[in-house]
């Protein structure tokens, strides 16, 4: 009976076993299908990521040329020592490499931080570092109540000054190198040294590459400024390799494929045109095994250095103008009452294109080491500093009067000084000028004519020794009109950090009168240049620009490459004025320079290039670097300015000059006029020489 029962249950067990096996195989096949079909691409990408890694190698930046094709900024090749960290490289292996490399090259240790020393001490002294942890803390770590990070921080906190003193000078040199090796990313070349790598160092490292995995010798580049310090502040700077990407823009750069240790433009032209100058990196695919060992490399793209910028600047003219400013500043500083004078600015611009020919500025500073005064470049001051400029703005005032309908051409005003109730002093011109019309008011620089224009804009009525109530909306009317010339607003120049200028906060009637003669709001030299260019260009306000063209890199190092992009002339606005009105202002500007009695005639009357323009003198309060030395009220100073263009009948160049804080209390010679005449003489002399 027992045997029969066993025979009956055997087939049932086998069937059950086969059924279970069938189910398991079915589940396995289903799982494989899911892995293959659903997650196949993900796993393939993971394999590709570990076995085929593309890295990018930087290329030299684009060059900068002046308008005549002369190189301003170039790239100088320099020797460099690099390190490429493999994926599986351990800290101990990097330490051995750093020790070997330290025997072959010299490095500075000044960038080593306290934390670097602590980390290095732990790496050098693992047993002593372990002794910094108590048994109780170790038990907490084993129970996962302390993390690796917390345990490591305890070790750092317990490293003493005596511990760190164990690090010798040789140790610090190894640390300096180790710090550079450890700062790079896997399979991405990291500069270890590119500053003053000697031929001996380059040769020694090249001969010992086999003993230092990841180390290589290569060629790097360095920015070379051929005209330094001319225009240096405008050209800008680039970061160094060990600076890393600027913290405030790191997300921007990383999202565009930059590496954290890439060199980028960090100021002005270098920064403004970073996307153009940076170029396209070389792309190299590293083929590795799963352990991260490089099996081979494949060049995907050779890369291309950055595109070149052709600037609108004429470097011969720029250098000549800077020399004129320097000589005039030093000469004026010898005169009485000029202790606060320390700077001067000049902008030359083509009124019909907006191309900036010269953007020059100089500033006198005291050398902290020698205690002596010296001259430095301050070309940026043309857009970053603003001043009361005086009567130079009167052309805008007259046109504002015409546009608002409060005056019309040939209207005359008696130049008798104005006197208001409650004010101790009269407000007038520098002398009595009769009854000038609009053209004569510009020629003779009548303040009173401009005052009457402002009173009418403010819907006021003047009576001597009576109050002068004005509609404060007049401030907005005047400023809105001035903005159409570029006064008190950004000009749109292709450089960052341009300043608007300061708008006075008071709405007192007397300040509206000051506004129309340039003694209330402040303006930059670039704004003055755009303003006078707008008048010279028959009312078209153009956007000034310092880059003329963007060019592809040339195959021949001594030539310019093909044009990638031309920077077009951009019209920002057209003055809402009648042609007759503009003619009147242009005639007034012409008489300023070329007719006896004009405020610029003494300086420009003999000029053969037919200049037109407007002089400016502003009584202002000093707000420069020496202001902090005194607790009292700021001293009164004289700011001198000049706007001009030539020839008046077919303008090809426009100019603005500002020399702030020239005199205290008394006045003297006019450095603005001397600078202006010499600058325009130089411009036409260089032009004549080029045509011969």
From TrEMBL:
Membrane topology per record: Single-pass membrane protein
Annotated localization: Cell membrane; Membrane
The EC number(s) this enzyme carries: 3.4.16.4
Pathway: Cell wall biogenesis; peptidoglycan biosynthesis
Annotated keywords: Cell membrane, Cell shape, Cell wall biogenesis/degradation, Membrane, Peptidoglycan synthesis, Transmembrane, Transmembrane helix
Transmembrane segments: 12-39
One Gene Ontology cellular component: plasma membrane
Organism superkingdom: Bacteria
Keyword Iron recorded: no
KW Cell wall biogenesis/degradation (keyword) present: yes
GO molecular function: penicillin binding; peptidoglycan L,D-transpeptidase activity; serine-type D-Ala-D-Ala carboxypeptidase activity
Domain Penicillin-binding protein transpeptidase residue range list: 345-670
Catalytic class of the enzyme: hydrolase
Main location: membrane
Catalytic activity: Preferential cleavage: (Ac)2-L-Lys-D-Ala-|-D-Ala. Also transpeptidation of peptidyl-alanyl moieties that are N-acyl substituents of D-alanine
Domain named Penicillin-binding protein dimerisation: residues: 57-297
GO biological process annotation, one example: cell wall organization
PANTHER family (UniProt xref): PEPTIDOGLYCAN D,D-TRANSPEPTIDASE, PEPTIDOGLYCAN D,D-TRANSPEPTIDASE MRDA
Similarity field: Belongs to the transpeptidase family.
Name this polypeptide is given: serine-type D-Ala-D-Ala carboxypeptidase
